[in-house]
Amino acid sequence: MPDLILSNAALPDGRTGIDVAVENGRIVGIGAGIAAQAGQVGEVIDAGGRLVSPPFVDPHFHMDATLSLGLPRMNQSGTLLEGIALWGELKPILTVEAMVERALRYCDLAVARGLLFIRSHVDVSDPTLRTAEAMIEVREKVKPYIDLQLVAFPQDGYFRSAGAVELLARSLDMGLDIVGGIPHFERTMAEGAASLEALCRLAAERGLPVDIHCDETDDPLSRHVETLAAQTLRFGLKGRVAASHCTSMHSMDNYYASKLIPLIAEAELDVIPNPLINITLQGRHDTYPRRRGLTRVAELRAAGVNVSFGHDCVMDPWYPLGSGDMLEVAHMAAHALPLTSREGLRWLFDAVTVNGAKTMRLDGYGLDVGARADFVLLQAADPIEALRLKAHRLLVVKNGKVVSRAEPKQFRLDLPGRPGAVDEASYAPRAAG
Prior knowledge:
This protein is of the alpha/beta class. The protein folds into two domains: 4-54 and 366-427, Urease, subunit C, domain 1, CATH 2.30.40.10; 56-359, TIM Barrel, CATH 3.20.20. The chain contains 14 helices and 17 strands. The longest helix is centred in the middle third of the chain and has 18 residues, at 189-206. The protein is globular, with a radius of gyration of 22 Å. The two termini are 34 Å apart. This is Amidohydrolase family protein.
């Protein structure tokens, strides 16, 4: 007897009138007419022809800083470097209890948004390692409903910050999952390159993945992603390394980029742009024309590189906005890249779902028989409409159990001769798909 059947759903691949049957936390059937043939069922939920999707995935976030906006002051310049300085002012007054409380509040919001998989960078530059302690506690608390991966991130520089080498190793011993780094924040290009060699060697010795804040700058000569790709190949880490941000690629000359991108593809690096934050923090020193600061997504896609998008920040020293909505992230990318063809818009939906799952190496993810019963029902007809509307999440299911529900969103009107209510999802173009 299925525990749950979601009936009459549309799938991201274009199929409609589909039922999804769930038993013991797994998808046991996908197809038309399952509900009619199932006999006894724990619960049947009518999707009403709306889109069911695998959960949203955020492969790049900073949960130790989330919801700390205004502590101890605001970022007046809006720059990355002032954000880092401000975070340095905040760290001495952070407590484990406050970080846990803010992170759990954010995770509540994430679940309501259908965001069930998050990779968070954890600043391990502070000798107390309070951030690591707090995020490990959060990881355990949210395990029933969010899969949380934790990156040991030397925010103040692996070589630049006194004691960072030992602190990163200690944080991994505590149980952080992934080796992180920030080579462009080292004092010199040479030290940045040396940090990547050391970090990749450490990951190889420990059998861990790598995720590097790489070239998050407008400087076209910041070329650490080249070194990261080379060290990935040298240490046999192919397919286990992610390069986050890579904004300097926006400013590189085309000839160098034509050499670099095949190297990234050869090393099988995952690339994680963060559209909301990259377009906000980059180009701050420009007058006009002002650079957008996003990496070369089109060229990376054409080379076969897996590109997934991260949210990066929500109401913290670097970004005063944000809502935990990965469709908002993809929506910004559509404008900033720009990418508005039907194929491009459809791909943007993948960039915050299945591509992120590849980046995080998630097992059992997806809408397939045998996969984990994790999915989201959206008030939209298809992925492009979900992106256009930043669609309302009607149902969120984790391990076969409903963890969030919402009523369909409607606007009530009082206009002579016009309908009494408007459902924005009903405005889908008839030729969509």
